[in-house]
Amino acid sequence: MNCYENLALSYDCLTGDVEYQKRAEFLKKLMRKSKIPVHTVLDLACGTGTMTCLLAESGYEMIGVDLSEDMLAEAAGKPVSEGKVQPIYLQQSMEELDLYGTVDAAVCCLDSLNYLTDVRALRRTLQRLHLFVAPGGVFIFDINTPEKLRNLDGQVFLDEQEDVYCVWRAEFDKRSRICTYGMDIFQREGSMWHRSLEEHYERAWEVEELKSYLTAAGFGQIRTWGDCVMRAPKEDAQRIYFTCIRE
Known about the structure:
single chain; 4-stranded antiparallel β-sheet
């Protein structure tokens, strides 16, 4: 079972506060850091395709890649406006990325790289991205900062919507630097409620170690940004964006 098998149907409902449009506009600003014109864009770990479709509506030719078949099924059901190029969706893991050709830019949104909890998987993913982002193209991603994940330890959160009820608990292991989210999901099915359990894992990656892995993979001109602001992140930032150029 992939970790989004039960969550996929309710994912959009539970992430209504993500401000996708605001983040899409910020990504468009960051894509101007590319050294080449950006027409084709990879959305790595695209999930249900909300960001993929927003960028497609802005005129980019989008390729969405995700490991979860259930999340991709949700993405495929989201058409974009007539006259825009419909996104292409591929079911692949991040570290096994395999495209038909290069893209001008790649984005990886909403702390998806934190889900790579193994150093080898992270380095392999960056190597695959270097292979498929065209020279001069930009790679953009964001992470939950170590401070944010550490502070989640012991926290319990509740999200209640009309047809879904989710309780999730976070535990942070200092030794492994992995934050575990235990999710208890209740979804309405007619007059009945279906209960399912999922566990998600995120690793706390330090900024400097990410920069070293990006450099080793062949990316340069690495910069960090605050959460949807065109300036350096503050010391206590909860989310940090990165831009780097494929050399």
